[in-house]
Specification:
Distance between the termini: 19 Å
CATH class: Mainly Beta
Pfam families: RicinB_lectin_2 (PF14200)
Order of helices and strands: EEEEEEEEEEEEEEE
Protein name: Ricin-type beta-trefoil lectin domain-containing protein
InterPro entries: Ricin_B-like_lectins, Ricin_B_lectin
Structural class: mainly beta
Number of strands: 15
CATH architecture: Trefoil
Organism: Favolaschia claudopus
Radius of gyration: 18 Å
CATH topology: Trefoil (Acidic Fibroblast Growth Factor, subunit A)
Number of helices: 0
Number of domains: 1
Length: about 190
């Protein structure tokens, strides 16, 4: 899922090839939609307070004032070695999707908070996520700290359904499959 911009320079007079691969600084925003319920990740009330709940909600049209509650920017973390990790940032609040403290308890709620910093939160891996493609257009989203997956409680399509961390495998568990779709023009 990282977005890269590559360039190549070749001289006819030499055999020198130069490649540079740089990460774009501003990836396009996305909506994140559940395969099971067809609802989107939604920052409850668009609140910017730490540990604001993330819930499932029916898709808002881009003309709706609450649309930005459902728009997220996926940002690569270049410092990670050995695997690709990302932060998921809400467009309205600028807060980061997290599994607080990397809690590995099944059913522990997913929230958003300001970016973690300081010696007591080294790495803040509970705000970092990995993406694993399961089938065309759908991914599992795994928290780096807990290794639990982003999961919609019981696969419910009810507005306000809890988004939680839940143990899983690299399988087709439909409560844990998510599509990333380019956000509308108002994002």
């Amino acid at each position: 899922m990282p977005i890269f911009n590559g360039t190549c320079t070749h001289s006819l007079l030499s055999t020198t090839h130069r490649w540079s691969l740089t990460t774009l600084t501003t990836p396009p925003p996305d909506t994140i939609t559940s395969f099971q319920s067809h609802t989107r990740l939604d920052l409850a009330g668009g609140n910017s307070a730490d540990e604001t709940k993330v819930v499932a909600w029916e898709p808002h049209p881009s003309s709706n004032p609450d649309y930005l509650n459902q728009v997220w920017t996926i940002q690569p973390i270049p410092e990670r070695q050995g695997f690709d990790a990302y932060t998921i940032v809400n467009k309205r609040s600028g807060t980061y999707l997290e599994l607080v403290g990397g809690n590995g308890t099944d059913g522990f709620g997913v929230t958003c908070s300001k970016k973690a910093s300081g010696d007591d939160q080294v790495g803040a891996t509970y705000q970092e996520w990995e993406f694993v493609k399961i089938k065309e257009g759908y991914y599992k989203v795994r928290n780096v700290a807990s290794q639990n997956y982003l999961d919609i409680d019981s696969g419910s399509s009810d507005n306000g359904t809890k988004i939680q961390g839940w143990w899983g495998q690299l399988d087709g568990n439909e409560n844990q499959l998510w599509a990333f779709e380019k956000a509308g023009d108002n994002a």
